[in-house]
Design a protein that fits this description.
The complex is a heterodimer of chains A (about 600) and B (about 200). With about 600 residues, chain A is of the alpha/beta class. Chain A is about 35% helix and about 15% strand. Chain A has 4 domains: about 220 residues, Thiamin diphosphate (ThDP)-binding fold, Pyr/PP domains (Rossmann fold); about 100 residues, Rossmann fold (3-Layer(aba) Sandwich), CATH 3.40.50; about 180 residues, Rossmann fold, CATH 3.40.50; about 60 residues, Alpha-Beta Plaits. In chain A, the strands form 6 sheets. Chain A has a 7-stranded mixed beta sheet, sandwiched between helices. A 5-stranded parallel beta sheet of chain A has the order 14-15-16-18-17, sandwiched between helices. Chain A has a 4-stranded mixed beta sheet with strand order 9-11-10-13, sandwiched between helices. Chain A is globular and about 80 Å long. In chain B, about 40% of the residues lie in helices and about 25% in strands. Chain B is built from 8 helices and 6 strands, in the order βαβββαβααβαααα. Chain B has a single domain, classed as Pyruvate-ferredoxin oxidoreductase, PFOR, domain III (Pyruvate-ferredoxin Oxidoreductase, domain 3), CATH 3.40.920.10. In chain B, helix 1 runs parallel beside helix 6, helix 1 crosses helix 7 and helix 5 runs antiparallel to helix 8. Chain B has a 6-stranded mixed beta sheet. Classes of the chains: A alpha/beta (about 600), B alpha/beta (about 200). The interface between A and B is large, with 65 and 63 residues. Bound molecules: thiamine diphosphate and iron/sulfur cluster (2 copies). One iron/sulfur cluster binds next to helix 20 of chain A.
């Protein structure tokens, strides 16, 4: 093997492939498992890469750049394509100028998402070609091929990955490839192509059908659709990561691997199925391939046995194979062993997190905290939530969130709740990046329609959840340039909000006062709780300490949910190596008997695992 | 050439991902095919982290199945038991004697399992369990953060990869100013599993 082989994640391979394909523009909004694509592209100084405000804007920027004549990549997570669906559907009809490739990174197991939707349906909906890699090498090869296909057929191309492809590292050979110099095209006035007045849109519809028919022919001969000949007894059609599992679980079978998976190669499928005795489709999530194969009148087995929900694994496929009767007994079973009962290790707000103080206060006002030894009371308040690190405020011991559906929803949901006539003043809670992504339009709606609720914007100056990306409020671009930082106060005021307060995220008194006042006032109020994300704060310096002679073990400090504070037998202790010290001091403010105090500076070194 | 399926387990912030990358690098340099996949939580500190590493002349699936892991390398004591389902009967477990109680334990809702409980789970499948004092040794070397490289030292004794290649991969992956301390940790890891 050549020593130039690199161990790359699917996302790194996509970025490298796009760079080698000669892209000039990339746009994205962060979202697991897609984020690293733009992070990697932003490193190249000879392309323009941006974090867009949201996925719809990213798509529109990408479409504009393509119209403008250059090769362009747009990337997002699966639910991001819901947000971007409008421009996505539009460019499917207008077609492109410079090659346009759209990455949808799906999360079948909903491991870091609100759902596990199958975005292959989007290719069919928009009638555009789709490629599905099953490792980093294919991701690299496919993204390069996708630009050629895009330009050859005047169409955007959807490259659909999944978490396991995006985040697995596998070897990529790039041969002698380097960055291709692609001649930019000029944008030419073309009213019938680019201006989707109804008459023009109707006129282009037949072209879309024509295009998809041509692509179906192309799919027949694409090297990404291939057969590995095996036993004629069993034929398996598969795609994406499932292909790798199938190769391992059924080493004897004949396999048709669909990498160009929309439109599907009809003749190839017919021919393959005619050569095998039993035909099975093994695909992750929906029966996308299976339904197509059935529509050709071919008898096939699949989703009766292969789960329709969640990520596939070799184990899951093995079990399905046994149930189908194409494998003998499932060898991997663990049933014979005593399973350990272990305490869960769930994600939680970091010690010293700027969201903790606000949540602690809200949890108290709402009577929600669940700490053993403290009386559980009837919960009060309705708190509509949103997506970000702060969603963890929904978990024990804080329990301070009642709804969370999709980005930006907290505000619209609060308006609806109030208009539905729920008794108390609703609290909506949203992060800064999420507010800029899709909260602003909700706030404008609230002002316009005279809604009355409390909006809390948790301004931690970053997009923390997805790994700390810049956003329009941070003053830095994706490529590290200084830029204008949106001023949230001015923005909120400009929307027409008059009751606005800004509080320090670690000042519990101020937070409590602001929340109380706003809950009592009969208007739309906004509280901005401000404090930078503490993920990279050095811990263990001048930490807080508990005076065991004063501590009554009331448990109030435990209800902050800080991972540095723990009950050890009948004492409460603070793990100095985890405490954020001067950057926090929440527990000190919480303790009713002043038993918590700052330890001497510099006592504990940088014991920061 | 051999086949290795390795699970690396730990807690966010312990350097599990970097350790896996270094192993992958060393395996490629030794001519192997490598696939690596991580199950990580979110940006915050403190969640469970599991890395799957597969090393062989040719690999398809990056994920390791139940009862398929030759080696479980655990940076935290209880996390080894969490990965028990992956462990191959007769496989090797290297486990750092460091307890990091999760919040539910800190709040008094759940209890951290005893050494006995953890070991009795693991020994159902194997008697090759190596309990090492990685965190203590790392602190003695000068920085608890070198734990991940200490653990690589332990692992290196169970893989057919040349010592020189291990060292090169470590040096390549770290900033120059912390190489020396990490090489000491690597060597301490080797000593920790050597028969006395
Ligand atoms: C449509 C959509 N795009 C992206 C994501 C991924 N995502 C979840 S929360 C979030 C941003 C969180 O940032 P912020 O609101 O500032 O909160 P923080 O995590 O910093 O507390 C992102 C990008 C998503 N869930 N849905
Ligand atoms: S990453 Fe930042 S915002 Fe997220 S929990 Fe940690 S400190 Fe809070
Ligand atoms: S000051 Fe208190 S609440 Fe803040 S990090 Fe330290 S122990 Fe946790």
């Amino acid at each position: 093997m050549s020593t130039n082989n690199k161990l790359l994640s699917g996302n790194e391979a996509i970025a490298l492939g796009a760079y080698h394909a000669g892209i000039k523009v990339a746009a994205a909004y962060p979202g697991t498992p897609s984020t690293e694509i733009l992070e990697n592209l932003a490193e190249y100084k000879d392309i323009y890469a941006e974090w867009s405000t949201n996925e719809k804007v990213a798509m529109e920027v990408g479409v504009g750049a393509s119209y403008g004549g250059v090769r362009t990549l747009v990337s997002m997570k699966h639910v991001g394509l819901n947000v971007a669906a409008d421009p996505f559907m539009a460019v499917a009809i207008t077609g492109i100028n410079g090659g346009l490739v759209i990455i949808s990174a799906d999360d079948p197991g909903a491991m870091s998402s609100q759902n596990g939707q199958d975005n292959r349906h989007f290719a069919k909906l928009a009638k555009i070609p789709m490629l599905e890699p099953s490792d980093s090498q294919e991701a690299y090869d496919m993204v390069m091929a996708a630009f050629d296909i895009s330009e050859q057929f005047d169409t955007p191309v959807l490259l659909r990955t999944t978490t396991r492809v995006s985040h697995s590292k596998t070897i990529v050979e790039t041969g002698n490839n380097s960055r291709k110099q692609v001649e930019g095209k000029v944008f030419k006035y073309n009213f019938r192509k680019y201006v989707m007045l109804p008459a023009n849109a109707r006129a282009r519809r037949p072209l879309v059908e024509e295009r998809v028919n041509k692509l179906a022919g192309f799919s027949e001969t694409s090297a990404f659709n291939f057969v590995t000949k095996g036993s004629p007894e069993l034929g398996i059609i598969t795609s994406g990561m499932a292909y790798q599992y199938v190769k391992e679980v059924f080493p004897e079978a004949s396999i048709l691997k669909l990498g160009f998976s929309y439109p599907m190669p009809q003749e190839l499928i017919k021919e393959f199925s005619s050569r095998v005795k039993k035909l099975v489709v093994i695909e992750e999530l929906d029966p996308f391939i299976e339904e197509y194969v059935k529509s050709l009148g071919i008898e096939v087995t699949g989703k009766e046995f292969v789960p329709i929900i969640g990520e596939l694994t070799p184990d899951v496929i093995e079990k399905a194979g046994c149930a189908m009767g194409i494998l003998s007994e499932y060898p991997g079973t663990d049933a014979a062993y005593k399973k350990p009962a272990l305490p869960g290790r769930f994600p939680l707000l970091c010690s010293g997190c700027p969201h903790s103080g606000l949540y602690f206060t809200l949890s108290n006002i709402g009577q929600r905290s669940t700490i053993p030894g403290r009386k559980q009371r009837e919960p009060k308040l309705i708190i509509t939530g949103d997506i970000g690190c702060y969603t963890l405020g929904a978990l024990s011991p804080l329990n301070a969130m009642d709804t969370c559906g999709c980005m930006g929803a907290s505000i619209g949901n609060a308006i609806g709740m109030q208009k539905a006539g729920v008794g108390e003043k609703v609290v909506a809670i949203i992060g800064d990046s999420t507010f800029l992504h899709s909260g602003i339009t909700g706030l404008i709606d609230a002002v316009y329609n005279k809604a009355k609720f409390t909006l809390v914007i948790l301004d931690n100056r970053t997009t923390a959840m997805t790994g700390h990306q810049e956003h329009p409020g941070t003053g830095k671009t994706a490529q590290g340039e200084d830029t204008y930082a949106i001023n949230l106060e001015e923005m909120v005021k400009a929307c027409g909000v008059t009751d606005l307060q800004v509080v320090n995220a670690w000042d519990l008194k101020a937070i409590k006062k602001a929340l109380k006042e706003s809950l009592e006032s009969d208007e739309l109020s906004v509280i901005i709780s401000r404090g930078p994300c503490a993920v990279s704060v050095r811990r263990g310096i001048n930490p807080s300490k508990v005076d065991i002679n004063k501590c009554t073990t009331c448990g109030l400090c435990l209800s902050i949910g800080c991972s540095a504070i723990a009950k050890d037998g009948d004492k409460v202790v603070i793990d100095g190596s985890l405490c954020a010290g001067d950057n926090c001091r929440l527990c000190e403010q919480v303790c009713p008997v002043n038993a918590i105090y700052p330890d001497k500076p510099g006592l504990i070194g940088a014991n920061n695992e | 050439m051999n086949n290795y399926s390795i699970i690396i387990a730990g807690v966010g912030g312990q350097g599990v991902i970097l350790a896996g990358n270094i192993i992958g690098d060393a395996a490629i340099a030794s001519g192997y095919d490598v696939k690596k996949t991580d199950t990580i939580g979110m940006a915050q500190r403190g969640g469970s982290v599991i890395s799957h590493l597969r090393i062989a002349p040719k690999i398809y699936a990056p994920l390791i199945g139940e009862n398929q892991a030759d080696i479980v390398l655990s940076f935290e004591k209880m996390e080894a038991a969490r990965c028990f389902n992956f462990l191959k009967p007769g496989g090797i477990v290297i486990l750092n004697n460091r307890e990091m109680p999760p919040l539910s334990v800190g709040c008094g809702i759940e209890e951290y399992p005893s050494d006995n409980e953890i070991l009795s789970v693991l020994t159902q499948k194997t008697d090759k369990v190596y309990l090492v004092e990685g965190s203590k040794k790392s602190a003695a070397i000068g920085n608890i953060k070198v734990l991940n490289i200490f653990m690589l030292g332990c692992l290196s004794q169970f893989m057919d990869i040349e010592d020189k290649i291990w060292r090169e991969s470590i040096i390549k992956s770290l900033p120059a100013k912390i190489v020396a301390i990490n090489i000491s940790a690597f060597e301490a890891g080797i000593q920790a599993v050597k028969p006395q």
